[in-house]
Automatic annotation (TrEMBL):
Keyword Transmembrane helix appears in the UniProt entry: yes
Cell location: Cell membrane
Protein source organism: Paraburkholderia phytofirmans OLGA172
Listed GO CC annotations: plasma membrane
Name of the molecule in the record: Fusaric acid resistance protein
Keywords linked to the UniProt accession: Cell membrane, Membrane, Transmembrane, Transmembrane helix, Transport
Pfam families: FUSC
Keyword Transmembrane helix carried by entry: yes
GO molecular-function term, one example from the UniProt record: transmembrane transporter activity
Membrane topology of this protein: Multi-pass membrane protein
InterPro entries noted in UniProt: PHBA_efflux_AaeB/fusaric-R
Amino acid sequence: MKTPSSAVRQSQRGAVKSALGDWMRTDGLTLIYMLKVVLAALLALWIAMRLQLPQPRTAMTTIFVLMQPQSGMVLAKSFYRFCGTLVGLVVMIVFIGWFSQQPVLFLTATALWVGICTAGAARNRHFRSYSFVLAGYTAALVGIPAVQHPDGAFLSAITRAAEVSLGIVCSGTVSALVFPQHAGEAIKATMQRRFGAFVDYVSNALSGKMDRSQIESATSSFIADIVGFEAIRSVAVFEHPDTRMRSGRFARLNTEFMSASTRFHALHQLMNRLHEQNALATIHALQPYFYEVAPLLKKSGEPVLNARDATQAAAQLDNFKTALPKRIRATRAEFKAKSETSLLEFDTAAELLYRFVDDLHSYTQTYASLAVPSHERERWVAQYIPKTNLIAAAVAGLRAVAVILVLSDFWISTAWPSGGTLVLAAATVCGLASSSPRPTRMAFQMAGGTALASVAGLIVMFWLYPRIDGFPLLCATLTPFLLLGTYLTTRRSLVGYGLGYCIFFCFLAGPDNLIHYDPTALINDAIALVCSMLVVSIAFAVILPTDAPWLRRLLLGELRRQVVMACHGRLTRLAVRFESGARDMLSQIHALAGDQVNLKRDALRWLFVVLEVGHAVVDLRTELSQLAADPRYVACTAWRHSTATMLDVVGRLFDKPNYKRFDAALSATDHAIAGVQALLDAVRASREEHRRLRRVLSNLHFIRTALLDPQSPFESFVGARGAPEETHHAT
């Protein structure tokens, strides 16, 4: 029997272990990451000095640009950095060969190249954007000093590549061997958490336990998960063969989750509209099926904890899906006999229910397939496709061109010895900040970090270096300063300060094999660096600023035009392009909106109607494309012409919404519904063709209800039309 004192001690030991475990999962991981960064930087510095490379500081700088908490991120970033560096070196050698005797032409060409690369960095996502940043930054870094000595340009390019390659190797080696953290583990955790959250969401929504604000919050969380999951997946393939073997299924899982979540949202919104219209007969006929869905997503009544547990849930969904059409037909017959209400609402809701169950079954099957190393579901080509507005990317490129041309003109006019550093730093910061949602703030923070690095550099260069001898003392001297910068990069609100400090501390005070003590040059370079970043920050704030309403309107228009793409785009993988593009645009709008809740809510309202209408349009066009080769279904028939007109008018409505186009879209949809209904009443088709035409009719009806939803952004147009027409149509 335990004494009270031993029980207290055991309780205290348990509390200490729990606290220690929490610390290791949070601050402990941060400390390990900081030590790994410093270790990799010092290792790269030592090897570069042993190899007598002209600028060991470049290898050390590469470490701070590359290092990430997870090994896959480091390897992916290293790959794209190496590609960007090679491209930048080749381009700059060409520029030097063409314009080495013409400084104005050379700097103009450099500005245009950096602008193109900055636009590419803004257009692309994740670490692919980094290759564009490096292609522009490397060209400036090699070319601006080399243009003054063109005879050494080729040697400078080769040594630059060697120093960068050394930094890449050291960062990848330390990240993979010293307390490695793998992106694959993050993928598994995300999959498990998201599956459980989606099951809870479906259960609560179908039981009526979620209000509008909770649905918006859950949708925002799912969108962040989808975008973040694709970012992790794109880097995890660099880590381990096992992750690469499952990469196709990871991509498929993300795509199928998008489809299932969109389908469920459409079904939930339709049921809400039926409640508002008091269509109780339809609700009561279908409600029992809704209550059966959520328990199917569990294993023996318990939540699914991993991919292996999902096998049983997939089997349960398969049985439910197989029996559902027959059960729905029986319910439809009873509904038709007992109710005088039109079957259109019932058919639309039943079709959405079946499609949701089908998408959910596919999603669960793919999740279950991850329990084995290889599976036939790995063969998957339709994956998440990020989308960025071309005009916004072009503006980022033009802004970079303007900044570099202005600073180049200042350099030529003043003949400032550090003018090259001024232009070089501007090229770097334009590229790095362009991919940030707050580029003005990022550039300003980098200026603050660089100012701090300048003070630290003066201390290290002129007070500490002369007092030490040997590499061990050099490591001891640099470690505190490097740890400070690395710590700043781990704080989300201070990451700009940390990035500026780490990169430009190495640039200003990174040791070379032969150190030149020139305080005038160091101070000049420090002033040039800080000034260049302040100029870039001002440029981002003044020249078409990214937080201005114009960019939000531009991105919102791009979000709406996803429906235009759904109406007129190629059907090949159209659903995936539509789904991923809409969510990607919303994630960008939310990043720009910051803490402005009203802007986020407005964007979410547009996302809901875009997803509902766009998904129904894709389904409609898919069904039309699969109709049999029959004279009654050819494009020149009246009903097909009215459907094509409806698609064109709906596309124009989402391109530029106004009341006239809204009224035309509703009229065209009514006309298309009447045409398909008349065809169904007049022709005797096979059972399969009859079902397909009913699915066409259901999609048309759902598009109409989505446009008339009082919670959609078209609510003012709905109010202008008045409610009687909607009531007449529903009854």
